[in-house]
Structure prediction request, 904 residues.
Amino acid sequence: MRKLQTLLIGIVVIIGVLFFSARYLEKNQGYASDNIVTIYNWGDYIDPSLLKKFEKETGYKVNYETFDSNEAMYTKIQQGGTNYDIAIPSEYMIEKMIKSKMLEKIDPTKIIGLSNINAQFLNQSFDPGNQYSIPYFWGTLGIIYNDKFVEAKDIQHWDDLWQPALKNNVMLIDGAREIMGLALNSEGKSLNDKNTQDLEAAKEKLTKLTPNVKAIVADEIKMYMINEESAVAVSFSGEASEMLDSNKHLHYVIPSEGSNLWFDNMVIPKTVKNKKGAYAFINFMLQPKNAAQNAEYIGYSTPNEKAMKLLPKEITSDTQFYPDQETMSHLEVYQNLGQKTLNEYNDLFLEFKMYRK
Amino acid sequence: MTSTKRMYAVPYFLWLLLFVAAPVLLIVYQSFLGINGQFTFANYTNYFTSATYLEMTVNSVIYAFIITLITLVISYPAAYVLNKTKHKQLWLMLIILPTWVNLLLKAYAFIGIFSTHGSLNQFFAFIGIGQQQILFTDFSFIFVATYIEIPFMIMPIFNALEEMNPSLISASRDLGANSVDTFRRVIFPLSLNGVKSGVQAVFIPSLSLFMLTRLIGGNRVITLGTAIEEHFLVTQNWGMGSTIGVILILAMLLIMVATGEKKRKGGEKTR
Amino acid sequence: MKKRVKWSNFYLLLVFIVLYLPIFYLIFYSFNQAGTMSQFTGFTFEHYRTLFADTRLLGIVLNTFMLAFLSALLATAIGSFGAMAIYYTKKREARNAILSLNNILMVSPDVIIGASFLILFTFLGLHLGFSSVLLSHVAFSIPIVVLMVLPKLKEMNDSMIDAARDLGASNWQVIRKVIFPYITPGVIAGYFMAFTYSLDDFAVTFFVTGNGFTTLSVEIYSRARQGISLEINALSALVFLFSMILVVGYYYISQGNLTKKQRKIRQEQSEVADLL
Prediction:
C-alpha cells in the first residue's frame, strides 16, 4: 500500500505539472475564444509561415487541425462536435458533402480574387459554378520512374506497366479508384465507367499485372521511390514533385491516353462558427503572393494564374506538373459513382489484392 | 454485505454498459444495415458466400496463429530469465519502454533497416550473401508484428512467474525433482494463467493488425483488420465493416472459451 | 550451473537488442544532415533546433503525456476494482461472461472503437476535445488492467482474507490492508500497460478528438502524407531518453524507499501467508 501511495502522489504531481505547463504554452500563444478560425486540413499542407502571416494581418488566431484521409474528415465533420470554419477536401468528397448538405454556400460577393484562378479549374462537375468550393491545389495521377532502371521511351503509357521487364518493380498507390481507373484508361474506357462488364475486364487485366507489382502502399511510396526501392510507381503529382526534388533520377509522366485530374478545394462546412474569419482565410489564400508562396513550399500545382506568374519559370514551364492543353483535355475528374458502383470498384480491387497471395 | 462489497465496482460496471455493451449493440445493429440504410442480411450472406472474404479470414487466422506462436516461444524464456535477474522490475519496465515510441515511426525505422539499400542488405552485401528482397515478404511482416507484440506477451507471463511461490519450487527440489521436472510439473502449470492472458492479448490484435500489412507487407497480407479499416474509412460501407467486426468479436469469444478456465477437478474452488 | 546463467543472460541481451534496434536507428538518424532516414551524410543538431522552435508540437507533447498519465490512473483504479468484482463473482458462467465483455474492447479494431465512441459521444451530446479523448483512453485501457490484476487475485490466498474477516476487519479494511498489498505488482503492471496503450493509440483518438486538442500520434500520422520529417525523430529521441530517465529514476527511488527492515517484514508476511 505504501508503495502504491507514493506512486499515486508522484503521478498526480506529474499530471499537475504537465497540465499547467501545457496551459502556459497555450496562453503564450494567445488563444481567446471569439477570434479563432478553425482550419481542417491535410497534415503539413500549408506553409506554416503563411498561417502566422494570416494571424498578423487579420488579427485572427488559427486553430489548425489535420486529417489523413477524406473519409475520416467526412466522418468527423458529419458527427459535429468541433466548429470547423474551413476544410480542404478533395473533389469527389466535396460532391458527397454537398449531397449530404454539409457545406455552406459561398457568397460570391464576399470573395475577393476569384478571377485570379485559371478558368479551367472553375465550374467543375463536382461543384458547378463553384457555389461551395474554391480551388486550393490541383494535380494528376501518373507514373514515376527512375531513369537508372527504365528509359523514358519505354514508359509513357499505362500499358507500359505490363511489360515483363518490370517484373517485381512496380509500386501502386493503395486506392481502388486510382488502380481500377488506370486499368480502365488503358483500355480506352472512362475512369468513371459504371458498366460491370468493363469493371470485371479491368480487374482481369490487373491480375495480369500481378507479377510486376512489388507492393501496394500509400504515402510511403515517396520514401520508397527516393530510396530507389522500385523502378516505377503509380502515384499523385503532388507526391511526385517531392520525390523529384529529392532524387534527380526520378521523372513523372502523365499517360496521354487519359488519367485522373484531382482538386483539393477550400470549403466552409456547416459547422462554421466564424464565417467572417473563414472568408478572410479564403481571400488570404487567393492572393497571388500567398498562393505562390504556398505552392513553392508544398510543391503542388496551383490553380492561381496570377500566382503562377510569380513562381520561377522552371516550375511553371515544367510539363510534368503543368501539362499542355492536349494532355489536359484527356484528364477526367472522379465523379461520385454512387455507393453501389463504388462497392463494385472496392470489391474488385480487394480481389486483385488478394489474388497476389 | 454484498451491497457494500459491490459499491467499489460501480464505475467498472458502468463502463461495461456504456463503453462495451452500447458500442457492441451499435455494431451488431449496423451489421444488419445495407448501403442505403435498410434492414438486411445481405452483409452476412455476402461475407459467407464470398470466396475472397473467406480466404482472407483463413489467411488472417493463420498469420495471427504464427505471430502468437513465435511471440510466445520468444517471450516465455525471456520472461523466465527476466524473473531471475537481480533488478527484475527495472528490466521489465525497460522491456515495455520501446512501445512508447510511436508505432508508425518504428515501422519507418524497420523499412529503413529492411529496404533494398537498407542496413541489413548492406550487411548482407558485406558478408557476401548479396542483396535480398526482405521488405514486403511474409518474413518481414511476421518479424515486425512479433516485435510489436513481444512486450504484451512478456508482461503477463512475467507476472505469473513472479507471483509463484519460491517455497513450492524448493519443496519440489527437496522432494528430489530435478530442475527439468520442477519446471514441467510445477513452474509451467502455475504460469499457465500468464500464458493464457498473453495469448489473449496477442492473438486477436494480430487478427486485426492493419497498418503494418500495408507498410511492411505491401498489402500482400490482408487481415480482417485491413478489411474493416477499408470499409470504415475508404468504402464507407459501415454495414459490411461492422459485419466483419461482429465476426471478430465471435472469434474472440471462441478464443476465450478455448483458453478460459476449465472446470477444476473437484468442482469449484470454495471461498 | 554458472555457465547456464550466462547463456540465459545472453538470450535476454539478444531480446533487448532487437527491441531497441529500431529506436536507436531512429535516434541515430535524428542527427542526419540529409533530412531522410536512408543515407547518413553528416552530423547536425538542426532537427533539434527546429523542434524547439515548434511550440505547437511541444504543446502537443505535454498534452499527450498528461493524457497518458491521467487516463492510465483512472483506468487502473476502475480496472482494479473491476477485477476484484470479477474475482468475487461466484458463478463461473457469469464470471466468464463478464470477462468476455471485458475483452471485447481489446480485440475490436481501433477504427470500430473510434467510430462507435464518436457516435456515442455525439449521442450523449458531449463536447469533443480533451474530455472525450480522456474518456475513450480510460475506456480502452480498462480491460488490460483487469487482465493484469486478475491473475494476482487468483494467486491470492483466500484464507488470509477469511482470517482478517474473523478478526473483525471491515470490507474496506480487507481491501486496503490485505488485498491491495497483495495485488500491487499487478496494479503497477496494469498502470504501465494502460499508459502504453494511451501513448500508442492513434485511430480512436483521431475519431473522438476535436476543438484543437491533438495528441502526438494523431499529429505524426497526419504528417505522414508529406513524409515524416526528422524533427519527429528528434522529438522521439528526446521523449525516449526522458522516459528512460524517468523509469530508471523511479526504480531507484522506490528501491531506496524499501528499507531492509521493510523487506524482511514483507518476506515474513508472505511466509506466514504460505503457512496459513
The two ends of chain B are 15 Å apart (CA to CA).
